[in-house]
Design a protein that fits this description.
Number of helices: 2
Distance between the termini: 18 Å
Structural class: mainly beta
Helix content: under 10%
Strand content: over 45%
Order of helices and strands: HHEEEEEEEEEEEEEEEEE
Largest sheet: 16 strands, antiparallel, barrel
Number of strands: 17
Length: 315
């Protein structure tokens, strides 16, 4: 995999909740940017809630298109949406949404250096866009340059009003890309790390950690040219602003851990699909200003099996 391909794949896989598609566009040289489409649907079996047993689902859809691109610069528009559903409703609560519109600009300074800036506006709430205090805003700017033939740096500044912690302040950061061979590729940054290690002909280890909120790891085995099976763990959260809350800084967190087995396969040279089944545990809702591993008065819900389907396309 070449350097550009590595950045493209890394940014698509990166589970940063705010701006994965904007990062994908920003890391890709303007003339090589593509239309990106992604759908994922995760459906839990019924489990115990405080009122009655209920099932949950979490669906996401993302779309990004370069509306203008040349040899040296590009403009990208993105749309994304998620829906978290509880059936039957619990305490009149049944739906949560996270909707975003994004705009990004990328400028190639030469064949090795580029910079990019993007902005995102949306709403993450049970009643999206009903009030100003349920809207979300994010902005990211970064500069990428090579260190040597096997590495490069990414310097960035990011603002978001819906981060798990350190909310509503601009945060500087960095990422160090290291790709000594096609078998080993890594990104180390603040506060995250990503590793893709093809340690044998058929085995691949993937790891992503966003301290202290997110951990995703999988081990995959290549069956043939058209199929790969995988197994792993996923510790992650989603956040929302509830309409009508008393404390403006409070947010609703949904916290979940998963173990899973799956199969990924290309449907064509531009379309990739994944089918996954697993067990979700240590699940809870809680209200807090920032993410915490020991929240006050969490609403715990029961463990559940789930099925998931994902489709990714680029053109």
């Amino acid at each position: 995999m070449n350097k550009v391909g590595f950045f493209f794949v890394f940014s698509l896989w990166l589970p940063l909740t705010a701006n994965a598609f904007e990062l994908a566009a920003g890391l890709t040289p303007p003339k090589q940017q593509k239309i990106l489409i992604n759908y994922s649907g995760l459906f839990h079996d019924k489990s115990d809630f405080p009122q009655e047993r209920a099932s949950t689902s979490y669906q996401t859809a993302d779309f990004s298109i370069p509306v203008y691109k040349s040899e040296v610069d590009s403009v990208t528009v993105s749309l994304s949406g998620t829906q978290f559903s509880v059936r039957p409703a619990q305490n009149n609560f049944s739906e949560l949404y996270d909707l975003k519109l994004g705009l990004g600009y990328t400028k190639a300074l030469d064949e090795q250096r580029l910079w990019s800036a993007s902005a995102r506006y949306g709403s993450a709430s049970d009643k999206p866009f009903e009030a100003a205090n349920v809207t979300t805003l994010g902005m990211t700017a970064f500069y990428s340059f090579p260190s040597d033939e096997t590495s490069r740096w990414l310097l960035l500044v990011d603002y978001s009003n819906n981060r798990p912690i350190l909310n509503n302040i601009p945060l500087p950061g960095f990422a160090y890309f290291y790709y000594p061979s096609k078998e080993f590729r890594a990104v180390f940054g603040a506060p995250f790390a990503s590793i893709n290690w093809n340690f044998s002909e058929k085995w691949v280890l993937d790891l992503f950690a966003l301290v202290p909120w997110i951990l995703k790891s999988s081990l995959s085995y290549k069956l043939n040219e058209y199929a790969r099976v995988y197994s792993g763990i996923d510790f992650s959260q989603v956040t929302y602003y509830l309409y009508g809350r008393q404390n403006e800084k409070d947010r609703l967190f949904y916290d979940e851990k998963k173990i899973f087995l799956g199969l990924k396969t290309p449907l064509s040279k531009n379309i990739f699909a994944e089918i996954e089944a697993g067990h979700a545990f240590d699940r809870s809702f809680f209200i807090s200003e920032n993410y915490t591993t020991n929240p006050d008065a969490p609403v715990d819900i029961g463990n559940a099996y789930y099925g998931k389907l994902s489709v990714k396309m680029f053109f």
